[in-house]
Write a structure and sequence with these properties.
By secondary structure, the protein is of the alpha/beta class. It is 17% helix and 31% strand.
Length: 466
């Protein structure tokens, strides 16, 4: 199994700080969940930004939060510095809230948006490298050539190609609106310069807000050569998410990246367009995914497996050489060489040892099945321990919920044979080599190598040990 398909590893960069703007209300999402926490291929929007940033090894990362700030902090954990922007008076005002945390930082400062999940680590590394190429650079910004630049600020340049201004669309002339080079809003600033100029940033005319883009004009006025640009080759990377249509479109881009990664790693996807793989899933070589598979969360699948069609795995671990049909596996462990048919449900806590066979319509919850257990069809094992080589007949049910309202365990020894339609009323132990007759209701322990039948089950003879 290989590493995260969404993270290429550029060289680490020392002396870098980062500010991630994640305070927006996200009103167009029409959701109670903060916009930056909406999931995309199993990771919140802002999580993708932080993953793109991580290979650069910033010494400090400040998240500027606002709406739902406590939820954001709870979701992302204590690895970051959190500051709250209230009220929210624009991007310049947001970055200013990070000044106290980074006032002593003498190196460059990356400013990113928490709703740009398509950014790549290599792009941020290139932005940092461009900023460091020449001393005296106050700011380096990402630009891009957009076939349709509507809604973006246009980049103006002089005859020598030097940037002279960013003009907003609403005040741009027809000639300026025809310019296709646009501002992404992602910057690398010289830290001391940023903090010394930001506090003096004037309120933007007609907006009653402080715009970070106005700092570009400040830098150009001081020294036209202090502003650098880096052109994006992939315009998808600057896409911000403002509504659920854009969320779905970004999800399509990320899924394409993931699918391409795994196919190049030796995984066969028979119909990539109908195969859904989350960012934290890992897959082994020579595994084949049939159409309609959903691999979610931190699922890990070994090599030489066959999944689907229409299999769904959520936080499941599957060993080498397994077959999984049209079944649902959740928070479970499946060892190597297990065969799982269709319409089965492995619920949290299920553990299938090597060589186990699950046929159809079987459900296993919080149970350990030993090597080579056969559970053909229409059975339920909950809170159970099943020994090696045991056969579970069709219609077997472990009755694990007692009259006291608590769950109890069932233990079945190695080599036992549980007849069709047996009910095992926990807590109960069926000894090694024991057998239950069809329709038996077992409410007392069964000795090893003993056959029991009836309701309630009673022993009728000893079995010859197998």
């Amino acid at each position: 199994m290989t590493s995260d398909p969404l993270t290429e590893q550029p060289p680490e960069t020392a002396g870098l700080a980062a500010v991630v703007l994640a305070a927006g209300m996200g009103t167009r999402m029409k959701s109670h969940l903060p916009k930056v926490l909406h999931p995309l291929v199993g990771v919140p929007l802002v999580g993708h930004v932080l993953r793109a940033l991580a290979p650069l090894a910033p010494t400090q990362t400040v998240l500027v939060v606002g709406h739902g700030g406590e939820q954001v902090q709870e979701a992302l954990g204590p690895a970051y510095i959190y500051v709250t922007q209230a009220p929210q008076l624009g991007t310049g005002h947001a970055v200013l809230h990070a000044r106290a945390a980074l006032a002593d930082h003498a190196g460059p400062v990356l400013v990113l948006y928490g709703d740009t999940p398509l950014l790549r680590p290599t792009t941020l590394s290139a932005l940092r490298a461009r900023h460091a190429q020449r001393s005296g650079t106050h700011v380096t910004l990402l630009t891009g050539l957009a076939p349709d630049p509507t809604g973006y600020g246009r980049i103006l340049r002089d005859a020598a190609g030097r940037m002279t201004a960013i003009v907003e669309e609403r005040v741009a002339s027809p000639a300026e609106r025809a310019i296709q080079e646009i501002n992404s809003g992602l910057y690398c600033f010289d830290g001391p310069w940023l903090w010394s100029r930001l506090a003096a940033l004037p309120i933007h005319p007609g907006a009653n807000e402080y715009y970070l883009t106005d700092l570009i004009a400040v830098a150009i006025a001081e020294d036209p050569d202090s502003v650098e640009t880096l052109a994006l080759s992939d315009m998808d990377e600057m896409a911000g998410i403002n509504n659920r249509v854009q969320l779905a479109e970004a999800g399509g881009v990320l899924r394409d990246r993931i699918r391409r990664h795994w196919m190049l790693e030796g995984v066969t996807l028979l119909d990539p367009a109908t195969t859904y793989i989350d960012a934290d899933v890992t897959l082994g070589r020579d595994t084949t995914l049939y159409p309609g598979c959903y691999l979610e969360g931190r699922t890990a699948v070994g090599s030489n497996c066959r999944l689907g069609p229409s299999a769904r795995l959520v936080n499941a671990t599957v060993g080498d050489g397994c077959t999984v049909g049209m079944s649902l596996l959740e928070s479970c462990i499946v060892e190597a060489g297990v065969d799982i048919g269709s319409f089965n449900h492995l619920r949290p806590g299920a553990y299938l040892s090597s060589g186990v066979h699950l046929g159809n319509f079987a459900e296993v919850k919080n149970s350990h099945l030993g090597p080579d257990v056969a559970m053909g069809h229409f059975s339920y094992l909950g809170d159970s321990d099943v020994g090696a080589g045991t056969n579970i007949g069709a219609g077997t049910i472990t009755v694990n919920l007692g009259a006291d309202g608590h769950k109890h365990r069932t233990t079945i020894g190695a080599g036992a044979f549980i007849g069709c339609d047996s009910l095992l009323i926990a807590p109960v132990t069926v000894g090694p080599g024991a057998m239950t007759g069809a329709g038996a209701v077992v409410n007392h322990d069964v000795a090893a190598d003993t056959l029991v039948v009836g309701m309630p089950a009673r022993p009728i003879r000893r079995r010859t040990p197998s």
